[in-house]
């Protein structure tokens, strides 16, 4: 049986290496589905460690395998995402992004570094645990259709068949040293909404000669807001968000445009309700468009499903985390309306997606993800590497 002290010591020993990896990845970010140099770097790290892997999954994806004793007994998938965001970094640090307009502002550099660190530890101790660990370094978590979805289609959950899956995500509002879990439904599905309203343009003074698509689009958006946000859309006790963040008409003070376009998001946590809302949204657009005798179109780009943490696996990991970090450092998380493509995996195999505290108020490390000043307390890397290794060992030897 591997003791937590052994894992903790190993995570300390690998801390400098993992920190070096994280800084390199942070300094060389790449956008979704273009993580070519990132993939090469991770492959090099696996090769040096003597860990077998295959490449070319959805172009840049990597699947590494570490076999313990009795490798057919059980297979645990460990997932890390590799892509960065189109954000210009504003941090003044030695490892600041070298790629203009691209930044690891969502912590995927941390995820990859933690996964590699756990791989090093598990590989060193492979004579002391049973089963197989499959490590998935995936492209394109940030954009549809989601790299996890494509890697599932590519067979990542097969050969060997994955029994359970684990992933972590940075959490800057939680202090370093702490982690968070939630069993059952945790994160929302996400769909992109694209509305086009075709009116009839003209001179603003000639009111009889145009049909103003700005007014019609506004009426549509207000009706959607009243139906799903102002009214009690949770009447079915299903969290629901329908919000539009962009509207564009390209007219002028005295020019009515022919067309208005708007874009938004829809998020919820129930697949039947999701389809129901799709239909309601389209009916609202049709009803108001018919009233003005114009044509409008609502394109719904279906995205990630809701993320559900397996109750038994999450409860077991919660207890293991308490044992590893102490009861006061493991918290229960609230529901989130953000989305994550690991949700595709949670819909296929029993999974747990947990949060790794990376903030430090005393050091001024408080910026949120998707901001140009996001950074982490580096101590979180040691916590992430050690806890991930501990959770996997407990699941495999349990």
Largest sheet: 8 strands, mixed
Low-pLDDT sequence parts: none
The helicity comes to 25-40%
Mean pLDDT: 96
Number of beta-strand segments? 16
CATH architecture of the largest domain: 3-Layer(aba) Sandwich
- Into which percentage range does the β-strand content fall? 25-35%
Strand order of the largest sheet: 1-2-4-3-5-16-6-15
CATH class of the largest domain: Alpha Beta
Structural class estimated from helices and strands: alpha/beta
State the shape.
Answer: elongated
CATH topology of the largest domain: Aminopeptidase
Task: Describe what this molecule looks like in 3D.
- The N and C termini lie close together (10 Å).
- The protein has 10 helices and 16 strands.
- The model has no long low-confidence stretch (mean pLDDT 96).
- The strands form 4 sheets. An 8-stranded mixed beta sheet has the order 1-2-4-3-5-16-6-15, sandwiched between helices.
- The protein has 2 domains: 4-186 and 306-397, 3-Layer(aba) Sandwich (Aminopeptidase); 189-302, Alpha-Beta Plaits.
- It has 398 residues and is an alpha/beta fold.
- Strand 3, helix 4 (108-124) and strand 4 (132-138) form a beta-alpha-beta unit.
- The radius of gyration is 24 Å and the shape is elongated.
- The protein has helices at residues 4-13, 15-27, 36-49, 108-124, 147-153, 213-230, 271-292, 311-325, 343-346, 379-397, and strands at 52-57, 61-67, 75-81, 132-138, 164-175, 179-181, 184-187, 189-198, 202-203, 240-248, 255-256, 259-268, 295-302, 307-309, 330-332, 351-359.
- Helix 2 (15-27) packs antiparallel against helix 4, helix 3 runs parallel beside helix 4 and helix 8 crosses helix 10.
